[in-house]
Design a protein that fits this description.
- The chain is built from 13 helices and 11 strands.
- By secondary structure, the protein is an alpha/beta fold.
- A 6-stranded mixed beta sheet has the order 2-1-3-10-4-11, with helices on both faces. Strands 7-6-8-5-9 form a 5-stranded mixed beta sheet, sandwiched between helices.
- The longest helix has 22 residues.
Length: 329
């Protein structure tokens, strides 16, 4: 993360919030009274998570008899959007939809955590899961993960691997694999999956850990080879590919999107919101649209989201701590 840009963004947001506080408070009250809810998505428009937000917003609006819009508040690896909901009025006017990893990894890697998920947010529902994949180039003489490990040991000068960004699940998956395999690996951070796949095809790096949905098209076209998926079971998107567990690696590392409200929100509204989200995700046409972009619809109770977050936090905390990786803030 570019810390100067991040700090500048934070300062701008804080200063703007201070100068416009009375107006923002009035706007929040007006939105609540008018039945307007903003779903804050802290990443750019156009990707799978953004599509998920827009689908559920469209479908939930008539159920809740509210106007629901999606707003992309990007920056700080998700922090800008998360903090905007943390500081919002708990009146139903703002909802956060983001990835699970942003909610449990960011507090682990920031030197001074910007938020406490349990104290600053009210859980609503788990929404959808997505998976990661280990990907190699077609010229590498390996047909599965075990074969690739043998290849890596024979080529210690070719152990560079790509991840979509530092501080992400793929980053820490690589750290865990390095330990489990006993092979020194060189992590190369990129901005997203596309440039990783391009460099794998070009032979610039040996392998990458990307979202499965991003890798499947190139896998089908034989531009790259997916040699393992990180889910507990084989993925419906690539059922021919074994899991890491099948390859003897005791690692399950999928990710997911969840929905939260600011702490102190009315429990009745949170319950209605969660029920509506789960009902939407159970619709056949919504399921079809989400699976088409590599998302597995889930839906859950607030308790289900809390348990998922706790389990992920407990699993990843020692792995992240062992790396010593931190973001200065």
């Amino acid at each position: 993360m570019d810390r100067r840009k991040f700090i500048a963004g934070c300062l701008g947001g804080c200063l703007g919030g201070y100068l416009g506080l009375p107006l923002l408070a009035q706007a929040g009250e007006a939105q609540a009274q008018a039945g307007l809810t903003k779903i804050i998505f802290p990443f750019a428009a156009g990707a799978g998570g953004d599509t998920l937000c827009r689908l559920i917003a469209q479908e939930m609006a008539p159920m809740l008899q509210r106007t629901i819009v999606v707003e992309n508040r990007t920056g700080g690896d998700g922090l800008i959007g998360i903090k905007s909901v943390k500081g919002a009025s708990p009146d139903g006017s703002m909802v956060l939809v983001t990835t699970g990893p942003t909610m449990y990894l960011l507090p682990m890697v920031e030197t001074t955590p910007s938020f406490d998920t349990a104290k600053d947010f009210m859980p609503v529902s788990l929404l959808a899961r997505f998976e990661f994949a280990a990907v190699i180039g077609p010229e590498i003489d390996a047909s599965d993960f075990k074969g690739f490990v043998t290849w890596l040991k024979a080529h210690p000068d070719k152990t560079s691997f790509g991840v979509p960004s530092n501080g992400t699940i793929p980053h820490f998956m690589g750290s865990r694999l390095e330990k489990d395999l006993g092979i020194a690996l060189t992590r190369v951070p990129y901005r997203g999956s596309a440039p990783i796949l391009n460099d794998i095809i070009g032979g610039h790096i040996s392998f990458g850990i990307t979202t499965l949905a991003d890798a499947v098209p190139q896998h089908r076209a034989k531009g790259v080879k997916i040699i393992a998926v990180s889910s507990a079971e084989r993925s419906p998107f690539a059922p021919e590919v074994p899991t890491l567990k099948e390859a003897g690696i005791d690692l399950v590392a999928d990710a997911w999107y969840g929905m939260w409200l600011p702490a102190g929100s009315p429990p009745e509204f949170a319950s209605k919101l969660g029920a509506a989200a789960s009902a939407v995700l159970a619709k056949p046409d919504v399921k079809e649209k989400l699976t088409a972009i590599g998302l597995i619809p889930v839906g859950s109770s607030a308790d289900g989201l809390t348990k998922e977050l706790a389990a992920n936090t407990a699993f990843w905390q020692p792995i992240v701590k062992a790396t010593g990786y931190k973001i200065e803030n």
